[in-house]
Amino acid sequence: MAKSQKLEILLIEKDEITLELYQRELSKSFNVMAFTDLDGVLENLTRRDIRAVIIEPETCTGQGWDFINTIHKEFPDRSIPIIVCSTRDESSQNRGKHVSSYLTKPVLPKTLHEKTLEIVKS
After folding, report:
1. How many structural domains are present in the chain?
2. Which of 14, 18, 30, 71 is surrounded by the most beta carbons within 10 Å?
3. pTM
4. pLDDT by residue for the chain (122 residues), tens digit each?
């Protein structure tokens, strides 16, 4: 896939080392816009053709779950897959009704890459 044809995804992760590891791996297949907080994320969702959002809900003092709900309220006509990659196992607490996949850390970058490819291609 040529660089200009890479699909765009958002990666929101508060830990800069984890962010760099995930971004490096995901960049093999995607144009990754990486954020350590929520500043600028909605603007990118509005202006770009984002194909998936990968988020650590604990980003920005735990407001990640509210942000996931905001995505679905602000963009009801777009089906943007959300992949939660979290240190907390909250997958069974019904918080992820808008979540396409829930991964509990530690998650290898390759595993996240494969899951993202699977979801974006479906």
Report:
1. 1
2. 30
3. 0.90
4. 444 589 999 999 999 999 999 999 999 999 999 999 888 999 999 999 999 999 998 876 768 888 998 998 999 888 899 999 998 876 655 455 789 999 999 999 999 999 999 999 98
Q: Report d(CA 39, CA 93) in Å as an integer.
A: 27
Cα separations (Å) of 79 from 41, 75, 76, 84, 87? 16, 8, 7, 16, 25
Domain containing residue 62: 3-121
Question: Hey, is 85 helix, strand or coil?
Answer: strand
Residue 80's H or E segment, with its range, is: none
* 54: phi then psi, degrees, rounded to nearest 5: -110, 125
- Of 51, 45, 55, the closest CA to residue 9 belongs to 51
